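Much of what follows relies on a compact textual record of a protein's fold. An example makes this concrete, so a full record is given next.
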Amino acid sequence: MIQNPAYQQMVLDTFCNALEDASPAIRAKAAEALGKIGDVAIIAPLLINTLKDTAPEVRRSAIQALGQLKNEASIPHLLTAAKDSDNFVRQSVAEALGEIGSEVAIPALLKLIEDANYDVRQSAADALGKIHSEVAIPALLKLLEDSNYDVRQSAADALGKIGSEAAIPALLKLLEDPDPEIRQASAIALGKLGNETLIPILIRLLEDSNAHVRESAVDALGNVAQYRVA
């Protein structure tokens, strides 16, 4: 942290000038650096203005910086950016909304989990898990049937973080998925629910052919036991 106010202003002015640089790479780095300063009142307006940059990499950096600042006032601007034509920009929006963690973002994230790009869907699922709202459960349950296994894995993880037992039947079905990472994610999510009726199922999962799945089953059992002791 720079202590000298004169140096602080010097650095800020330098980054502001860099936002006008002819090189998109320089503008992107300037936006990224501004997110590290942390003075939301000064920095957020600069980053919001940068969301209009013609280069997608610059818009991505500005979005990521706004997420780092956890600035709720920027949410309306991020919701607009969620309609961007660039896949990575929309993905960054989902990630930033998850970092901010406001339920105001849920409607936009529910749209993003239907995005044609699987990276966007995955990031939206992750964000919904961070927000911990049960409103997202029906959409996340549907996402468990996604064609992309990374998306299914993120949906399972998000359901575990939200902690609703309404997800149990769908998560149990995922324990039969041919992909071991999906079975592992399901076991982890089930463990977070803390339901003791899952104990026999998790014990049977110790017979899984994949060591990582068996390891996750042990962790899940430990989590359930911890809930019961508490």
Notes: The chain has a mean pLDDT of 92. Residues 131 and 222 are 25 Å apart (CA to CA).
